[in-house]
Amino acid sequence: MTSERKTVPDNGLAADLHTAPQIHREDSVQDAIIEEQYARLVETVRDYNPAADFVHIESAYHFAKRCHEGQRRKSGEPYIIHPLAVAQIVAEELHLDSESIIAALLHDCIEDTDATYDDIAKRFSPTVADLVEGVSKLTRVHYTSKEEEQMENLRKMLLAMSKDIRVILIKIADRLHNMRTMEYQTPAKQKQKSFETMEIYAPIAHRLGMQKMKWELEDLSLKYLDPIGYQEIEEALEEKAAEYDGFMASIHDEIKSRLEEAHIEGKVYGRMKHPYSIYRKMYTQNKSLDDVFDLFAFRVIVNTVAECYNVLGIIHDMYKPVLGRFKDYIGTPKPNMYQSLHTTVVGQNGIPFEVQIRTQQMHEVAEYGIAAHWKYKQNGQGSGDEQDYEWVRRLLENQEGADAEDFIHSLKVDMFADEVFVFTPRGDVINLPSGATPIDFAYSIHSAVGNHMISAKVNGRIVQFDYRLQNGDIVEVTTSKSAHGPSRDWMKIARSSEARSKIRQWFKRECRDENIVRGRSSFESEIKRTGVSLKELTNDENLPGVLKKLSYKSLDDMYAAIGYGGVTALKLVGRLREEIQSILKRHQEERAAEVPLKENPEKTRPAVPKRSRSERGVIVEGMNNCLVKFAKCCSPVPGDDIVGFITRGYGVSVHRADCPNADPARRSPEEKNRWIHVEWAESTSEEYSTTLEVVAKDRLSLIADVSTALSATKTKVTGMNARSTPDGFSLITVEIAVCSGEQLKTLRHRLEQISGVMRVSRPVG
Q1: Would you call 719 helix, strand, or coil by DSSP?
Q2: Distance of CA 284 to CAs 218, 277, 296, 653, Å?
C-alpha cells in the first residue's frame, strides 16, 4: 500500500508526526486483511472436513505469524500472507488433511526463520516437522554448480515425497502462489523461476495427475518466458471470444439435448485449450490460431463406465470422428491414474473439437490427481495408496550414481514425456515414455532380458534397436545366453531412466577393469586441460583430500565410475576446483620469487629458475609438471628455435620462433608476460608431428621417389596429399612424425636430391 508524502518543514519532528499515524493505519489494515484471510481458510477447511484439528491449525497460524514477524515479501506485504495463501490452495483446491494445512502454514519457518525441526516436532508432531523439512530447500549446503544444487533439492524433495506424498502437494501449492505473485520479482528472477517451474514443477504436477494446477503453472510460466507470445495468444483469443463462445454454446446444447433424448443424466462442459497448449501448437508447428487443431474441448460427466461408452457412440453418431484420434484411457489408464475416453470429431461447420467422456470420480482424479485419492484417518494422519507413488521410489533408485545433468534429464523424461502403450506377445500392456525404443521395452520386462537381447520385432517385423515405438505396437524381444551384454551406444538410444540405470549397472558390475582404464584416461585428459598433472594432483599429500572431496574410497573406484558412465570426468574436475587452484597458485609463487639484477636494479629475474622437463621433451623455465602442447600452426620439432605461450587453462603452447603467431611485433601488450622461455631437453623418445611441402616439376614416378626417400630415412608418414598445377608443377604435402631434428634434416636432404625437386619447406602460420 503506497501513499504520497506531503512536504513539511525539515525539522524531523513534523515528518514523524505525519508518518507515524499513517504507518499505524497501514498496519491496522494489513492486520485486518491477514485475519480475514485466516478466517477464510478456516471456513474452507470446515466445509470439506468438519472434523479437522482446528486447535492446532490456529496454533500453527499464530506460530508462523510470530516466526515471520517483521519479514516482508517483494510486494511489501507482510510475509505471513504467503503461508496463508499456500494453506488456502492446499485446502481449497486439494482438500488435504489437518497436518497438511498446518505444514503449509509452517512451510517456510525452518528455511527462513530461527525455528528448528525440533521446535515444530515438539509443538505439533514429528510428522508435521517431516513435512515442513521436506518442503524446505537445502540452503545450508555448499554446491559446486547451480545444476548440482537443483539436483540435490529435487532429490531431497523426491525422497521425502516417496515417504509422504503430501510433501510434493504442499510444494506445488507453494510454487503456484509464488508464480501468481511473480510480478514483484526482477525480470531475471522471473525467467529463472518460470523456467524451473516449466521444467520441474509442471511435469511433477502432470505426473501426479494434477492437470488443473499443471495448466496454471504452465500458463504463468509462459507469461514470463515469452511475454510477447503469451500476449499475442491472449489478444487473439479475446478478439475471437464472441465467435468462439457462440460455437461452444451451440455444441453444448446439441450434446445436452441428445443425452436427454437417450435418458442419460450427465453434465456437459465446454472450454478453450489453455494458452500454453495453444502456444506449443502454434510455435512448434508454425501455425496461426485459426490453423490450430482441436482448439476446443468438451467434457461429458456421467455416472457409470457403461454410460461413458454409450455417450461415445452418441457423439460419433452426431459428428464425424477423426481417424486415429480416439484414445481409451478407461480400459488402459495412464500411470498417473488418469481415466477418460478421448475422441476428436468434426462439427457440422467443419470445425474440429475434442470430447472427453468420464465419470464424476474420474473427473476428480483428472483435475486433482493423487490428491483426489487422499484418505483421512480419525487421528488426522493422511495416507494415500502406496502404489500411487511407487514410481517415485523407482525413479530415485534408477538415478543412483547419476550426475546432476543426467538426473535432471531423466526426471523430465520420466515425468513429462507423453506415454506410449505397447503390448507384449501375450497381450500385456507396457507403459513407456514417448520416444521409447525396443531397448526400453526389454529392460522394462527384466534386466536379464535387456542384457541378453540380440534382436527385436515390432508387429512381426525385425526392427533396429533405435526404432521409436508407437501406441499399440506388439513388441517381441529375442534373447541369447551367449550375448555379450549391452553396448555403450545403448545409453544414447535408451529413453527411460530405468533402462539407462540398468545398462550403467551392467557395465559397473561386468567391466570394472575396462572401466578403470577408460576412466583414468578420461580423467587424466581433463586434468591436463587445467595445467595440473594427474601425478601432482594424486600424490601422497593430496590424494586423501581428493578422495574425500569426491566421496570415493580409492582412485580405481573413481576411475571405474567415470568408465561406466556414472559420472563425467568434467564434473569431478569441477569439484576439485579448490585443489587445482591451490597447485596453480604454488606454481605461480615459485615463478614469482624474484631478485634484482645487478646491472639494472629496476629489473628482476627468478631467484631460482626451475628447469623442469615436461612429458613432451620441452623444458619450461619456472614451471613444474606443466602441460605442454605444440602449436599446429608451425609444428615445432627438436632443433627448432622455440618460444612458449601460457594459454588460459591448457598449459603452455610451444611455437617455432619464426612462426608469424609468435612474432614479437604482433604480440599484444596485455599478453607480454605470457610469452616465456622454453628449450628442448637433451634427449627425448617422443615423436613430433610436422608437415613438409615439396615443390617439383611434374613427372612420372615422382611420388614413388618421394616414398622411397621416406622409407630410406625410416620416417613415419601420417598423411600425404599431391596435386598438379596447370603450369606443370606438383605440390606434395607430407604429414610426418619424427623423433629428432637430425632425422628431419636427413629427410629434407634426401628429398632435395630427387630429380626435379625445386624446394622442400615447412609451412608456418
Answers
A1: strand
A2: 16, 11, 19, 46
Find out whether 485 and 451 touch, Cβ atoms under 8 Å. yes
DSSP string, 129-187: HHHHHHHS---SS--SSHHHHHHHHHHHHHHHHHH-THHHHHHHHHHHHHHHTGGGS-H
Q: Are 625 and 619 in contact (CB under 8 A)?
A: no
In order, the DSSP letters of 581-639 are HHHHHHHHHHHH-EEE-SS-TTSEEESS--EEE-TTSEEEET-SS--EEE-TTT---TT
Which fold does the domain 417-509 belong to in CATH? Ubiquitin-like (UB roll) (3.10.20)
Q: What is the pLDDT of residue 338?
A: 80
Q: DSSP readout, 430-457? A: EEEETT--HHHHHHHH-HHHHHTEEEEE
DSSP assignments along 251-316, one per residue: HHHHHHHHHHHTT---EEEEEEPPHHHHHHHHHHTT--GGG-TT-EEEEEEESSHHHHHHHHHHHH
Q: What is the grid cell recorded at 603?
A: 629489473
State how far the Cα of 453 lies from the Cα of 484, in Å rounded to an integer.
9
Write out the DSSP string of 462-525.
Answer: EE-TTPPP-TT-BEEEEE-TT-----TTHHHH--SHHHHHHHHHHHHHH-HHHHHHHHHHHHHH
Q: Where are the domains of the chain?
A: 13-232, 240-373, 417-509, 512-589, 609-680, 688-761
Fold classification of 13-232 (topology level): Hypothetical protein af1432 (1.10.3210)
Among 87, 46, 94, which residue's Cα sits nearest to residue 65? Answer: 87
- The side-by-side arrangement of strands in the sheet containing 628-630 is 628-630, 652-656, 642-646, 675-676
Nearest alpha-carbon partner for 219 in 271, 279, 269: 279
| Strands 352-359 vs 296-302: parallel, antiparallel or unpaired | parallel
Q: How far is CA 36 from CA 30, 42, 69, 85, 493, in A?
A: 10, 10, 18, 12, 56
Q: State which residues of the chain have pLDDT below 50.
A: 1-20, 23, 138-144, 375-388, 398-399, 404, 413, 415-416, 594-598, 605-613
DSSP 72: B
- Distance between CA atoms of 524 and 93, rounded to whole angstroms? 54
Q: How far apart are CA 301 and CA 267, in angstroms?
A: 5
pTM above 0.70, yes or no: no
| CA–CA gap between residue 384 and residue 336 (Å, rounded) | 13
* CA pair distance 121, 674, nearest whole angstrom: 60
Name the residues annotated as catalytic.
111-112
Cα–Cα distance measured from residue 199 to residue 209, given in angstroms and rounded to the nearest whole number: 16
Helix (H) or strand (E) holding 28: helix 13-48
SS3 assignment, position 678 = strand
| 469, three cell numbers | 515405438
Query: Among 208, 133, 211, 156, which residue's Cα sits nearest to residue 385?
Result: 208
How far, in Å, are 520, 653, 740 from residue 686 at the CA level? Answer: 22, 17, 8
Amino acid identity, position 41: L
Contact 487, 514 (CB under 8 A): no
pLDDT at residue 18, rounded to an integer: 45
For 274, the grid coordinates are: 489453455
Q: Does residue 403 contact residue 389 with C-beta atoms inside 8 Å?
A: no
Which pLDDT score is estimated for 294? 63
Gap between the Cα atoms of 160 and 113, Å rounded: 21
Domain 688-761: state its class.
alpha beta
**What pLDDT score does 221 carry?**
92
Homologous superfamily assigned to 240-373? Beta Polymerase, domain 2 (3.30.460.10)
